[in-house]
Amino acid sequence: MKCPNCGNRTSLNLDMHSGGFSSGEAPLKECGECGLVWRVKIEAGETMIDIIKPADKKK
Ligand SMILES: [Zn+2]
Question: What is the pTM (predicted TM-score) of this model?
């Protein structure tokens, strides 16, 4: 999964420690390059990107 902000492929899965999210939800991803946190969801057959936290502009 490429980062939707910078295109980097170094993404971290943030939800690996928690079993608390509902099964229909994709896990949160964090970009190792720009710090963007996002989630991919499928809505009406289309892939949507949910930005949870904007990219870290200090990097
Ligand atoms: Zn990124």
Answer: 0.70
